[in-house]
C-alpha cells in the first residue's frame, strides 16, 4: 500500500532553499546540455535525470506565469521521452486535493469540519474515537492505524476479513464502509490519543471519504470530480500501484540508486486491488505537470486573498495553521524568508514533492516516475527532488 515518509522531517530542501550555494550541481552529460538560456526548471529536470531518475517534471509557479520542464523517459530501457502532458503519480500529495474536495463539500452544507465520526459510524461503546471529527481525520489526529506499508496493518485487516468468511463487497462505497467499520474497532496506536495527537494515517483519509459517501450517497471519486477536478480545470485520474501501466503512459520504477527497475504489480498486489482502492483518497491521483501547476496557482491566488474555486474554509485552515503543524493535507514549515506549505508523496514507482509559499508569491514542484524508500525511511529519490527544488525555489523569488 502507500508509503509516505514522516511529513515533519527536515529535508535537504529546507537547507537548499535557505542557501543557494548548497544548490549548485553540475552534470557530466554534455550531450544534453542546453543553451545558456536554460531556466531553473529545465536545468533541474535535466540534472535530476542525469543523477539517476528515469523521468522528471519540474515546475515553478507564480500567480501570473509558470515555467515547466520535463526530461528523461517514460520507461527504463525504452526510447519514448517523457512528455509535458504525461500524467505522473502524486502519491500522498493527493491528500491535499482530497482535503480540498472535503472543504468544497463542507461549503455546500454536506458536513462540517467538526462533524464527528459518531454521526456516521456505529462506534463500539466507550470508543476512543467517539469525539474524533472530520477535521481531525484530515489533520492526522484521528488516532487510526497508519496503513502506510511500514507495519502489519494491511495483513491484520486482510486476515480479519478472510476469517470473517464474508465476500468482498461489490462497490467501492461498500468496501470503504466495511474497512472503516473494522478500523474503528481497533485500538489506537500506542501512546496516541484520538482527537489530540498527530499520527500519520492513510486510513484516516479513507474514513473521511467514507463519511462523505455516507452523507451524500455518492462514491468519493465522483464527488472529487464534481467539486474539485471540474471547477479547477484539472486533468488527471486515479491509478494505483496494483494497476498495470497503460501503453503510451509513464511506467513507475523502484530501487536504490544505480539499481532502479521497472515497477510491475505482482499477482498478490493485483489480488488486493479491490481493497487498495479504498485508500485512493490518500494517495492515488495522477496528473500532468501543467495541471499540477494549475492546482498550485489556485492556491497562490487564494492565499493572496483572491476569490478562487477552492473552498474558503480549506484556505482558511492553511492560512491559520500553527507553525510546524500538519493541517488539511499539508505540512507547515518555516524558511528564513517566511512560512511554507510542503508535502511529499510515494506511490508504486512514482514520487512527488511540492512547496508553496504561504505568502502566495510562488510554488515549486517535482514529479518523477522513480521511487525508493529504504527500511530506515531514507530515500535517494526524495533527496534528489530536494536537491533540485532548492535552486528552483530560490530562482522563483526573482
Summarize the structure.
This protein has 398 residues and is of the alpha+beta class. It contains 14 helices and 12 strands. The model is unreliable at 1-36 (pLDDT under 50).
The H-level CATH homologous superfamily of the largest domain, spelled out, is: DD-peptidase/beta-lactamase superfamily
Widest sheet: strand ordering? 2-1-12-11-10-9-8
Architecture per CATH nomenclature, i.e. the level-2 architecture of the largest domain: 3-Layer(aba) Sandwich
What is the typical, i.e. mean, pLDDT? 90
Provide a descriptive summary of the structure in words:
With 398 residues, this protein is α+β, with helices and mostly antiparallel strands. It has two domains: 12-97 and 233-395, 3-Layer(aba) Sandwich (Beta-lactamase), CATH 3.40.710.10; 110-223, Methane Monooxygenase Hydroxylase, Chain G, domain 1, CATH 1.20.58. The chain contains 14 helices and twelve strands. The strands form three sheets. It has a seven-stranded antiparallel beta sheet with strand order 2-1-12-11-10-9-8, with helices on both faces. Strands 3-7-4 form a three-stranded antiparallel beta sheet. A hairpin with a 2-residue loop joins strand 10 (338-347) and strand 11. The chain is globular and about 60 Å long. The protein starts with 11 loop residues before the first helix and ends with a helix.
Amino acid at each position: 500500500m502507500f508509503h509516505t515518509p514522516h511529513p515533519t522531517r527536515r529535508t535537504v530542501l529546507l537547507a537548499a532553499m535557505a542557501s543557494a550555494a548548497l544548490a549548485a550541481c553540475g552534470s557530466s552529460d554534455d550531450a544534453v546540455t542546453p543553451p545558456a538560456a536554460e531556466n531553473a526548471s529545465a536545468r533541474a529536470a535535466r540534472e535530476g535525470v542525469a543523477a539517476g531518475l528515469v523521468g522528471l517534471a519540474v515546475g515553478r509557479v507564480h500567480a501570473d506565469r509558470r515555467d515547466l520542464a520535463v526530461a528523461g523517459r517514460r520507461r527504463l530501457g525504452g526510447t519514448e521521452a517523457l512528455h509535458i502532458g504525461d500524467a505522473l503519480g502524486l502519491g500522498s500529495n493527493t491528500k491535499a486535493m482530497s482535503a480540498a474536495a472535503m472543504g468544497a463539500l463542507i461549503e455546500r452544507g454536506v458536513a462540517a469540519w467538526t462533524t464527528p465520526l459518531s454521526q456516521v459510524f456505529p462506534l463500539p461503546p466507550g470508543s476512543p474515537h467517539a469525539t474524533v471529527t472530520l477535521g481531525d481525520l484530515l489533520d492526522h489526529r484521528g488516532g487510526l492505524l497508519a496503513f502506510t506499508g511500514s507495519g502489519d496493518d494491511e495483513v491484520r485487516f486482510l486476515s480479519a476479513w478472510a476469517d470473517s468468511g464474508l465476500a468482498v463487497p461489490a462497490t467501492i462505497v461498500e468496501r470503504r464502509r466495511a474497512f472503516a467499520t473494522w478500523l474503528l474497532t481497533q485500538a489506537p496506536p500506542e501512546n496516541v490519543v484520538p482527537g489530540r495527537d498527530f499520527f500519520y494515517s492513510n486510513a484516516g483519509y479513507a474514513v473521511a471519504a467514507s463519511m462523505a459517501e455516507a452523507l451524500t450517497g455518492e462514491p468519493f471519486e465522483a464527488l472529487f470530480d464534481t467539486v474539485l477536478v471540474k471547477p479547477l480545470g484539472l486533468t488527471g485520474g486515479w491509478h494505483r500501484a496494483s494497476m498495470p501501466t497503460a501503453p503510451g503512459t509513464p511506467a513507475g520504477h523502484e530501487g536504490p540508486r544505480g539499481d532502479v527497475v521497472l515497477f510491475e504489480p505482482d499477482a498478490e498486489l493485483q489480488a488486493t486491488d479491490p481493497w487498495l482502492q479504498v485508500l485512493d483518497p490518500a494517495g492515488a491521483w495522477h496528473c500532468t505537470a501543467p495541471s499540477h501547476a494549475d492546482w498550485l496557482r489556485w492556491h497562490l491566488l487564494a492565499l493572496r486573498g483572491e476569490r478562487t474555486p477552492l473552498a474558503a474554509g480549506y484556505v482558511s485552515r492553511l492560512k491559520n495553521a500553527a507553525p510546524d503543524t500538519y493541517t488539511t493535507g499539508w505540512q507547515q514549515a518555516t524558511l528564513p524568508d517566511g512560512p511554507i506549505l510542503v508535502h511529499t508523496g510515494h506511490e508504486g514507482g512514482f514520487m512527488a514533492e511540492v512547496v508553496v509559499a504561504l505568502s502566495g508569491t510562488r510554488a515549486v514542484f517535482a514529479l518523477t516516475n522513480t521511487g525508493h524508500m529504504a527500511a530506515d525511511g531514507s530515500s535517494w529519490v526524495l533527496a534528489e527532488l530536494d536537491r533540485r527544488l532548492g535552486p528552483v525555489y530560490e530562482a522563483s523569488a526573482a
